[in-house]
# Entry
Amino acid sequence: MTEASKDISTQAQPSPVFRQDFELNRELPPQLNELEALSRNFWWSWHPEATSLFRDIDPVLWDECEQNPRALLRRIGEFELRRRATDSLYLQRLAGVSRAFEEYLELDTGSRIAYFCAEYGVHHSLPNYSGGLGILAGDHLKSASDLNTPLAAIGLFYRYGYFRQRIGHDGWQNETYNDLFESDLALTPVVDGEGSPITVCVHIRGREVTARAWLANVGRIRLYLLDSNMPENSDDDRLITGHLYGGDTETRIVQEKLLGIGGVRLLRKLGISPEVYHLNEGHAAFSTLELAREYLEENTDAGFADAVESVREMCVFTTHTPVAAGNDMFEPKLLRECFSDEFIAALKLTDNEFLALGRSDLTDDAEFFGMTPLAIRMCRSSNGVSEKHGEVSRGLWKKMFPKLDSENDVPITHVTNGVHSPTWIAPLLQDVLRNGCDDGELWDAHCRLKRLLITFLRERTRSSATGSTQTINEHRDTSSLLDPDALTIGFARRVAAYKRWSLIFSDIDRLLRLVDDEQRPVQFVFAGKAHPQDNTAKTILQELMSINHDSGWQRRAVFVEDYDQEVARYLVHGVDVWLNLPLRPMEASGTSGMKAAMNGVLNMSILDGWWIEGYNGENGFAIGDLEKELTDEEMDKNDSASFYDVLENSVIPAFYDRGSDGLPKAWIRMMRNSIDTLTPQFSSDRMVNDYITEIYKL
# Structure
């Protein structure tokens, strides 16, 4: 993960208002009271029958509220509520969903596992995520809930969340931030038996910082989010939980102190003593130091080595980053200044011993303090998020184990990521597949979802002020934008150099010939955010916007701004092909392609991350090969040639080859193969079960 702009704190200063709750503060007709209870638990978000209860009240307002049921219930007119309160069919639906919800919540298996993560993408109405890590964590919680896993989750509540994206007329990305304290969120304050907020204190920058906790219910799982926006804190300390991946390096350190150390202290305040602490990425690694401090406080005759032995028995670690530069690393002097003398003394360590915990090379006193080395040292289990990523991680951290003869002996395993099928498979497709379907019915369902996507894209890219020239993110007239019958390729991911957006345009004339083919046209849907501080990535986006050749590109390509879960859902439901072009082996896993595959969308991807495990030759398309002895430049050249070759000679013919009934038989066969083989293999249910049996060992 990378940092946001160092001056991000100047973009949104805390107001003197301190939120005490997120109550609805309106009275619903008694016949509709169950809606309020449903809106408080994100269970509704993966149960279509529950989602439809909110949407059907007012579909237009539902979209205006960005599918936030709390906002909908606050803004909906009294007349519409009263009308629903007299609609017997609607009330029957509400009663049925409420019964199912209550029965679901009857099981509560406790909190034997504490899951720590810096971001959670449960639903876009709680914008507490930036990308893949957060979405993965949200899916983990949903499957843990469905599987009755005894898990409690710990995170931070970022008042301004992650940035909202707007592309200017010049093609340059601009960022804005919304104050979530002004939103209607499904959060409740965590209070003690007397109704007072439960708080924790962490020593930060020479003073005690107080944080309270908010609770988000994710089915049966409780997600606790720490918030430093308290009246007793200074303005600087109130902004510790201001922005996700925001501020300078010092802000990152103190955020991670609050997550790790504050998270453990919150569990104690809640009376929770887990058997397993799961650190999902290195951001939470300071939790191990707090556990060690607790042990030494209780065992006064023990030393730090004894504490490590105890902590390691409880802690497991998942790394999501395949390159050393992608791991959090802090300058030793700055890191040391963020910890009090008392805390380090309580660990019974010298300054150098403390700093050595984060070094991969113990002989280098100047090495930056790494959160991943700290986590690997302090946890009994470490794993990557795909088979390939496990292999890459063993090579990356071999230097921590100089006595081992081989990288294969490095104690890092893997659990391949998965996604939550009920969240990501289109309800229409769920119904079609559940009832059994022939080729015509499957293809009809896909085409309906594709037309919905195109309608959505036409709405999202229509603009009355498009600047001097139209670009693929804004059009005055979208009535002829995209063709529902044309092969549609989705390319949606973070904008970063290693994602290789530029590979698509490596032969622009060849690309535009494919776009302009009257018989077999190709069209593209793009989405993704560049990190605010990454001007190279912003330039990639600007160059994409500037393509305006004498061709049909402007009506056959679209860029969707502000990529989030809702945009992703339309895309993975409706495109024909999901494209992925990372530089090997820098894709740790990737999960967007899994979501597409479950919807019968065919992956066309570099053999990296999860696709190495998923591709069988009949369920999608592979770009390039697994040749190891290539420079990055050679790999770019080979993969570019392979991309165009596969597109022209495999993908396009398979899509456009139709039988007498108008159906692409070979394509549909691959769709079925994708759904049948990839859905069970890459579901988050399988992933969570793997963690339970192979990592948690409960």
